[in-house]
């Protein structure tokens, strides 16, 4: 046991050091041009005297064609560099759905409802109780209405109703808050880990709000909780790859978990 504790103590500092090394390497690669050009320019300027600068200015005045050509090349290279850089994507606004107070459930209420189903053994109930205590669920956690019923109603229709309640509730709030029109939405990314119906959840959103026909719609499912980050990255890449329009509000990404 003592050996394992010592190994864990060594692993934590090593992981932190490795994290900083990766961050430093990424920063070095991303800003290599600036990190090398600035010192070289400083060294070159410190070694030049006033006579050298006067001689250089006189030489350039006699070779305007060469100077003009160099300036044009620099401008073209700078333009290509700026155009090749990916556009920055910002989170302008967001909404989180908050259910009705009647869907609030304490740990004791959940364990009581689970026990009344008669589908779990004492060992399984003890395991669920341990999960509730260690997972961070509080006494004011919201759950689905079907999980509070006895017996628990786990039908497909109820699951679809729950998904619609959450999705449409948060979208209505977001549209009211931002004033964005549904015709201005060009990208839709929907993510749900457990419920994957056919037609998909994204098609439910498209049909509900009558979104335009050429919308880029993506439905992520069955990928676990990590798909939340994947959906954000997907929306970001789509926004960077798509040409901006004159309205500047043409591309709106909605992430629903």
From TrEMBL:
A Pfam family that the UniProt record links to this protein: FAE1_CUT1_RppA
Molecular functions per Gene Ontology: fatty acid elongase activity
The entry's keywords: Acyltransferase, Membrane, Transferase, Transmembrane, Transmembrane helix
SUPFAM superfamilies recorded: Thiolase-like (SSF53901)
One GO cellular component, as annotated: membrane
Reactions this protein catalyses: a very-long-chain acyl-CoA + malonyl-CoA + H(+) = a very-long-chain 3-oxoacyl-CoA + CO2 + CoA
Transmembrane domains' residue ranges: 25-48, 60-83
Name the record gives this protein: 3-ketoacyl-coa synthase 11
Source organism: Quercus suber
Encoding gene per record: KCS11_5
């Amino acid at each position: 046991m003592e050996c394992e504790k010592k190994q864990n103590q060594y692993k934590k500092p090593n992981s932190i050091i490795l994290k900083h090394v990766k961050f430093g390497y990424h920063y070095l690669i991303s800003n290599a041009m600036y990190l090398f050009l600035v010192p070289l320019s400083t060294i070159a300027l410190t070694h030049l005297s006033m006579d050298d600068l006067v001689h250089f200015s006189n030489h350039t005045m006699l070779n305007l064609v060469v100077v003009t050509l160099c300036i044009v090349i620099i401008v073209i290279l700078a333009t290509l560099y700026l155009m090749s850089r990916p556009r920055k994507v910002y989170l302008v606004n967001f909404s989180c759905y908050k259910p009705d107070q009647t869907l609030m459930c304490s740990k004791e209420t959940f364990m009581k409802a689970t026990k009344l189903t008669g589908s779990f053994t004492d060992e399984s109930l003890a395991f669920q109780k341990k999960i509730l205590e260690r997972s961070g669920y509080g006494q004011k956690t919201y759950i689905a209405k079907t999980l509070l019923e006895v017996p628990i109603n786990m039908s497909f229709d109820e699951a679809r109703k729950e998904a619609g309640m959450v999705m449409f509730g948060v979208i209505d709030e977001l549209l009211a808050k931002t004033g964005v029109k549904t015709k201005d939405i060009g990208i839709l990314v929907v993510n749900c880990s457990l419920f994957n119906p056919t037609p998909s959840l994204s098609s439910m959103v498209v049909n509900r709000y009558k979104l335009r026909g050429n919308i880029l719609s993506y439905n992520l499912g069955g990928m676990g909780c990590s798909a939340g980050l994947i959906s954000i990255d997907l929306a970001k890449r789509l926004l960077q790859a798509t040409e901006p329009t004159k309205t500047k509000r043409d591309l709106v990404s909605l992430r629903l978990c």
